[in-house]
Every structure is written in structure tokens, then in C-alpha cells.
Design brief:
heterodimer, A: mainly alpha, 2 domains, two-stranded antiparallel sheet, globular, B: alpha+beta, four-stranded antiparallel β-sheet, 7 strands, 32% helix, elongated
């Protein structure tokens, strides 16, 4: 019962903190309100709510107002009052929706049922997968949760910093805390907001549920974007099918593989957030261009601003997507450059967008500068890649990692767009009529889709061409999103072509079955790869129970070392102490100590692997390390034999030793 | 206008349905996590630990969360001389503290605890 109540509080806090403010702000612009449908309002309002709470908390933190339930209830109350006033105005004016799409572009009953079925299937697959991984154990989520917990405990904006072990004249010492560029404030503030408001535990299912909501809204934003984009590329009946194929590819087919449910259980917060931001920003820019509406451009700029406070990699990718899209737009409009330039400037460079840019500058100057915006971090992301993981992914590997079927049909979509472009050019203008298809070159959607695909493709395939020095595998995950829209286009056009080419119903059915088999086998084979056979809840619980014992008996000035290789959910251990991001010390993965490209301290390795060694003893003595937490079957024996250690705790998985010197 | 409302109606159905799916998913997953947590915390494991880990005392506790309730512990000096051995009954989800009144400020003390499945866990304190 308590659990159900907590879940209801969690849902209410999400509605109050994110959806209500977002909807209220959207409704302030009649143009946006009337030009978007309910589904679009859903993800637009949520994202708007996310950026607003970030900015609100940053200001509160700056002026010294502690984050509390009272603060967040006041925030919600303000928006509720505005919404009541708005509703009264709306009721008087009897406003009606004005969907900007061809008047007859709506889904039939069968198609609507199919959409509902695909949504249900998507949610169902993700839920089934997450039911085995919902218990908080993942390393990334553990690291993020430390900072979220820090915000909740200190009620203010945290300082992202950690100590390092450095050599000294006496052996080793801890350095002064140094800034960490890997964490960005916007990844943590929304979590802290709803946890404080609903009074929930950090160590629970709710962070993963929040990520699930984000991920599914990302699927909806892709679906909506595909409807808008594809309706300008292909004729209505095919566009509807293409949107449904997009939903199929973005939803149930690859529901578990990265960057979907796998990222939810893995706690890859930044990527999941970025994956909703990017399609939504493109959606806003598309609407701005198509409806010649500056408010949409302003909204897109506002989301871009929010993205840079949320995830640096997604922000950088957005810059490349926009740059390549602009490049293709210029080529596409080269004959009417003056008109194009005039239209673009009037929509995108207006007082609306400039005001957002000014707010962004003021925020970064006076309120809060994102941690990654320092010379070292920027310098480390731009330049000639050196590490093997950053030199690009082979083409075949890229296809395999993105999903074969998705890639094949996505590439078909690219070819279709290029063909529709070339068909419009002077060379093909006098071609025979049979070359004319139902595909046309959209002045905005086609160049943007090409720019979106090619920018990420090059960033992950040949990063050195663009002077990108970032993990190629992480960038490659972003390729999924243009691919699902292009894949939807490719599939719909292919089915349409098959239907037109074959009058024989038997042939059509056979070809359809072959194509669908390929699609489903590829999608579900990838899903199956990530299905876990058993949960690690029991093992993680053993870790937490041992940590509780240690937190109860250790003192603030006593250092602890634990192992990352053989302890389940060890990243969550620091939440029990709340004594710093680097507390307790951790023996990292063994390969990290062998990595020639980055020299790191070896104290943490020696202290667990060879505690009797001279180096190990020196590290223990100079770093004041009193406790060791290891896997009881893997690493306990070297401590049991060592006269300097007492074994003070043992459960199914964990042994804790105390160094009595 | 009727067509426009029909379009909006379709999207509203999809939106409401999506929110409903989310609600069910949230309830199922939160319940699952809570059930797993309770199960993992109260079932299938036992542990031993010193009550005062940094002091000379070797008082310890057996915490049982398994169905087997019979435990056998041995306290020995320097791994040879047995100083105390006892069969005890520790019901499920209870803690059994073992208090040791002897002088324990010298020698190496080893405590070994075994359950019905012959699973062995140990604690060690070493004094000069």
C-alpha cells in the first residue's frame, strides 16, 4: 500500500513539476497551442517543464534559497494559478485547435488502433525487460545518484569536484579537489526536484521510472517528427504508413537495445535526455520554418539552451546536426538564396530568439557556468582522436550496432531523399515521366534529414575528418534517430513500389512476408541479446547491507577502499557515506591500470591486489586507509593471511577488513 | 472544423492511452522493485560481524535471514586452541549476539560460524 502511495506521489510530482508548468507556458502562446496536437503538447510541455525547473533551481541556488518541498509546492502553485486564469480566458474565447497539417491527414480507425497497439507493445516490452533490472544497481546511475543525493542533502547546487591520489615526498597524498567535467547540472536537478517534492528515496525504482518516461517521450517525439517531416516529402497515404513504420522501428522492434531500455537500466541519463531534446528541437525548428512562426523558433532555441545545461555530447551533436542541415539547406536553396536567406532570418533571427540567446548568456555569465565549459574539457573533445575507441567505427560495425534492418531501410530512405533531390535538378528535369515518383524534395525536411544522418554518420565513422575526439560508440547511438525516420520512409516507399509493381496478390504477400520477417528478426534478435537471465538484486542487497555496517562504524577521517571489479552495485556505496564523490576509494577495472594512453595512480590497485607489497603498505599508511571492502570469495584470502588486517564482517558476497595499524 | 476536431480527437486518444500505459508500467515496476527489495533483504542470506570492530572485544552477532536456523560457532586462539564452541538456534529474520567475557586483548582470535548447509563464514581479530 505504501508503495502504491509513493508511486502516486511520484506521478503527481511529475505532473506538477514538469507537465503543468510546460502546458501553462505553451498555452501562453496561442500560435503554439493551436498548431500542435495533444501528443506534441505532451512531449513539448514535459521538456519545457524540465528546462524551466533547471533554470528555476539554478536561480534559487544562486540566491541562496534552499531546495525544499515548500519551494517546489510554491513553484507548482504559481503555475496552477496561471493555468486557472488561462482556462477562464480560453473558456470565454472558445479556442479550437488548428492543426497545421493537410486537412485530411488523419489516421483511420485501423491505423489509430495500430498506433495504440505499437505503443502498448513498446511499453510492455520495456516494462518486462526493466522488471528484471529495475533494482538500482548500475554503475552510471550510481554515480549520478551520488550527486542527486548531494543536492537533496545539501539543498543547494553541488560543486562537481573530486580528489586525486598524487605522489608526494612521504608517499602518496590526496590532491585538492579538482573540477569534474563529466557531470552536468541539468542531468541531476529534475531528479532532485521530484525526489524532494514527493519525499522519495534515491535508492529506489523511481530514477529508472523517470528515465523510462523520458525514453518513451523520445519515441513519441520521433513519431510526431516523422509525421511532420514525411508529410512534406511523400504523398499523404504513404506518409501515414511511413510514420507507422517509424513508430515500429523506434518503439517495439528495438525496444531494449542501446539507446533504449538498456540505457534506462544502465542509467545513461545524459544520452536519454539528449535523445528527447534533439528530435524536439528539430520539431520546433521545422514548425518554425513551415508555419513561419517565430515562437516555435524561440521554443527550439530555448530547448537548445536547456540541452547545453543538460548534456555536453548531445549539445555538440546538435551543433553538428544544425551545421550540416544548414549546409544542405543552402545547397537546396542556392537558386533562390536571397528569398531563402530573408525568410530564414525573419523566422530564426528575431527578437524572440535573440531574447533567449541573451538569457542564455546572462545565465552562463552570472548564474551558473556548466562544468564542461572550461578550456581543458573543450580542448579534450576537439582535436585529432588518439584513443582506439575514438578513431571511428568500421562501416559494417556501425550497421551492426545500429541494427541491420534499421540501417538497411534507413539507407534506402537516404537514397530516396537524394533521388528526389536529383530528380528536381536540371539534369533530370527532362527525364521521361515514369521516373517521377510520389516522393518529392521537401525544402526543409529533406535537407535536415540528410544533415542529421550525415553529421552523426561522419562523427562516428570518420571523426578525424571533423576533428572530433570523443568516444565513437557513444556518438553512434545517436544515429538511431535519423535512421528510424529514414527507415520508415524507406519501408513505406518500398512497400508502395512493390504494391505498384506486382499486380499479383500472392507475389505482394510473399514479398511483404519476407521483408517483415527480416525486420522483426533483426529487431527482436537485438532485443534478445540484452535480456538478462537472472537479476542481481540479491547480490546488490548484500553490498548495501555491508555498506550500512561500515557507514555505522567508520569515522569521517578514516579512508575506505572497495573493489569495482567483483562487487555488485559498488557505485552506489558512496551514497551511504555522502563523504565525497571519491569516497570510498575504488580499485578500478584492471584494464584501466594497463591503458597506456592515460597514466593513473596504482595505489588503489596495490591496496587490494597486493596489500603486503611495499607499495601497498606505503599507500595504506600515507592515505590513512583503514577499511577494505571486497568480494568474500575473490579477494578475501590476501587479507585473511595478512597480520595487519582484521576481518570484521562477512555475508554472502562481501567481506570487510579493518587495518589495525 | 469537424475534420480538425477529428484529427485532434485521434491524437487525444493516443495521448490518453500512452499515459494510461505509463501509469500501469510505473505501478508494475515500482511494485516489482519493492517486492524484490523486501525478498532480497529478508531471504536467502546470513552474516556475521563484530559488534565493536575497532575495539579489543570479540563480541559478535549472527544475523540470520535463511530458512535454516541451526548454527554452530567456534572461537579459537591462533587457529588452534578452541575457547568456545556452541550449537545455537537463530530463527529466521533475527539477530543472535554472542558475548565473550574472557580477556581478549592478546593473541589472534578466529571465529568460525557454520550453518546447516555447511556454509562457513569467519571473523578474525589479531592482537600483539
Amino acid at each position: 500500500m505504501e508503495n502504491i502511495l509513493q508511486t502516486i506521489l511520484f506521478i503527481l510530482s511529475l505532473i506538477g513539476l514538469f507537465f503543468v508548468p510546460g502546458l501553462v507556458l505553451l498555452s501562453l502562446s496561442k500560435k503554439i497551442w493551436r498548431k500542435t496536437n495533444a501528443l506534441e503538447k505532451l512531449f513539448l510541455s514535459f521538456l519545457l517543464g524540465i528546462v524551466c525547473i533547471d533554470l528555476f533551481m539554478l536561480i534559487s541556488g544562486k540566491i541562496g534559497i534552499p531546495f525544499s518541498q515548500v519551494l517546489f509546492f510554491s513553484y507548482i502553485l504559481c503555475f496552477l494559478l496561471i493555468s486557472i486564469a488561462q482556462w477562464r480566458v480560453y473558456r470565454q474565447k472558445k479556442m479550437q485547435p488548428d492543426i497545421y497539417i493537410k486537412d485530411n491527414y488523419f489516421f483511420s480507425k485501423k491505423q489509430t488502433l495500430l498506433i495504440l497497439g505499437l505503443i502498448a507493445l513498446t511499453v510492455c516490452i520495456k516494462t518486462v525487460y526493466l522488471s528484471d533490472t529495475i533494482f538500482p544497481t548500475s554503475t552510471d546511475l550510481g554515480h549520478h545518484m551520488y550527486w542527486i543525493n548531494r543536492i537533496i542533502e545539501t539543498r543547494t547546487i553541488p560543486l562537481y569536484e573530486e580528489r586525486e591520489i598524487i605522489p608526494s615526498s612521504i608517499g602518496y597524498v590526496f590532491s585538492q579537489p579538482k573540477p569534474i567535467a563529466d557531470f552536468i547540472i541539468g542531468e541531476h536537478l529534475p531528479f532532485a526536484a521530484y525526489i524532494i517534492t514527493a519525499h522519495l528515496s534515491v535508492l529506489s525504482a523511481y530514477p529508472a521510472l523517470f528515465l523510462l518516461l523520458f525514453n518513451l517521450l523520445g519515441v513519441l517525439s520521433l513519431f510526431s517528427l516523422s509525421i511532420r517531416f514525411l508529410s512534406t516529402i511523400i504523398k499523404e497515404s504513404v506518409a501515414k504508413k511511413a510514420s507507422l513504420f517509424t513508430l515500429l522501428l523506434a518503439g517495439p522492434l528495438y525496444a531494449i537495445a542501446s539507446p533504449q531500455a538498456k540505457y534506462i537500466s544502465g542509467g545513461v541519463i545524459g544520452n536519454i535526455f539528449g535523445n528527447v531534446f534533439i528530435p524536439t528541437i528539430l520539431f520546433c525548428f521545422f514548425m518554425a520554418w513551415h508555419t513561419k512562426n517565430r515562437v516555435f523558433a524561440m521554443l527550439g532555441t530555448f530547448f537548445s539552451f536547456g540541452l547545453f545545461y543538460t548534456h555536453h555530447l548531445s549539445g555538440l551533436i546538435l551543433i553538428f546536426i544544425i551545421a550540416w542541415s544548414v549546409f544542405f539547406l543552402i545547397i537546396a536553396h542556392r537558386r533562390k538564396m536571397k528569398k531563402f536567406f530573408k525568410e530564414t532570418v525573419s523566422v530564426f533571427i528575431s527578437p524572440h530568439t535573440i531574447s533567449i540567446a541573451v538569457i542564455a548568456i546572462l545565465y552562463t555569465t552570472f548564474i551558473y557556468l556548466p562544468s564542461y565549459l572550461n578550456i581543458h574539457s573543450v580542448g579534450s573533445a576537439i582535436g585529432e582522436p588518439e584513443k582506439s575507441t575514438r578513431t571511428g567505427i568500421a562501416f559494417l560495425q556501425l550497421i551492426s550496432s545500429s541494427g541491420e534492418a534499421k540501417c538497411v531501410f534507413g539507407l534506402l530512405g537516404v537514397i530516396i531523399i537524394i533521388f528526389s533531390w536529383v530528380k528536381n535538378s536540371s539534369i533530370f528535369r527532362k527525364m521521361p515521366p515514369y521516373t517521377k515518383t510520389f516522393v518529392q524534395f521537401s525544402p526543409f525536411a529533406s535537407p535536415v534529414l540528410l544533415g542529421w544522418f550525415i553529421s552523426i554518420f561522419l562523427m562516428s565513422w570518420k571523426p578525424s575528418w571533423l576533428f572530433i575526439d570523443l568516444p565513437s560508440g557513444r556518438i553512434a547511438n545517436y544515429l538511431n534517430f535519423p535512421l528510424v525516420i529514414l527507415g520508415g520512409l524507406g519501408l513505406a516507399v518500398l512497400f508502395e513500389a512493390i504494391q505498384k509493381a506486382n499486380r499479383d496478390a500472392y507475389m505482394r504477400a510473399t514479398t511483404g512476408i519476407i521483408l517483415f520477417s527480416f525486420l522483426f528478426l533483426s529487431g527482436y534478435a537485438e532485443n534478445a541479446e540484452f535480456v538478462k537471465e537472472e537479476t542481481n538484486t540479491k547480490s546488490a542487497t548484500q553490498t548495501f547491507i555491508a555498506t550500512e555496517y561500515l557507514a555505522q562504524h567508520s569515522l569521517q577521517n578514516e579512508e575506505i577502499i572497495k573493489d569495482h571489479n567483483y562487487i555488485t552495485a559498488d557505485a552506489w556505496i558512496k551514497l551511504f557515506f555522502n563523504r565525497g564523490y571519491d569516497y570510498p576509494l575504488s580499485r578500478a577495472y584492471f584494464k584501466r591500470y594497463e591503458d597506456a594512453s592515460s597514466i593513473r595512480e596504482t595505489c588503489t590497485l596495490h591496496m587490494i591486489s597486493a596489500p603486503e607489497s611495499q607499495e601497498g603498505i606505503l599507500c595504506y599508511n600515507t592515505l590513512r586507509t583503514r577499511y577494505v571492502m571486497v568480494n568474500s570469495t575473490r579477494d578475501a584470502s590476501q587479507f585473511e593471511k595478512n597480520n595487519s588486517f582484521w576481518k570484521i564482517f562477512e555475508n554472502q558476497d562481501i567481506a570487510i577488513f579493518y587495518r589495525n595499524q | 472544423m469537424r475534420t480538425l476536431l477529428k484529427i485532434e480527437y485521434t491524437y487525444r486518444i493516443v495521448t490518453v492511452f500512452f499515459l494510461l500505459c505509463m501509469l500501469i508500467s510505473f505501478l508494475v515496476l515500482a511494485h516489482r522493485e519493492n517486492a524484490e527489495k523486501i525478498e532480497a533483504e529478508t531471504n536467502g542470506w546470513w552474516s556475521i560481524y563484530f559488534n565493536n570492530p575497532k575495539e579489543n572485544s570479540i563480541d559478535f552477532t549472527i544475523e540470520n535471514n535463511t530458512d535454516s536456523t541451526q548454527f554452530h560457532y567456534t572461537v579459537s586462539i591462533d587457529g588452534k586452541t578452541q575457547r568456545k564452541t556452541e550449537y545455537i538456534n537463530v530463527p529466521k529474520n533475527t539477530k543472535y549476539p554472542v558475548i565473550f567475557n574472557d580477556d581478549t586483548s592478546k593473541h589472534t582470535w578466529k571465529i568460525e560460524v557454520q550453518d546447516e548447509q555447511k556454509q562457513l563464514k569467519s571473523l578474525i581479530k589479531r592482537f600483539e
